[in-house]
Here is the input.
Amino acid sequence: MGILSWIVVGLIAGWLAEQFFRGPKYGLLGATIIGIAGGLLGGVLAANFLHIQNSITGLNLTSLVTAFLGSIVLLMLIRVVNQRRL
Here is the structure.
């Protein structure tokens, strides 16, 4: 998957995850970073727990769903860490 595909999938998945979670918004760059990191996390989780290899393969629905679910998990982890700080 090319770098441009990672950015587009990350942007879409990060924005969708931010809309799903009502909380602080991280902006365009933050949403892209959350989406890309969520895609990596989602790919690792899909490979290790669901035994789905190559779930992130390009700009398609499977990649978007994997990145979205990984972004949701990442945002939940961010919330847990931020709540413990308060």
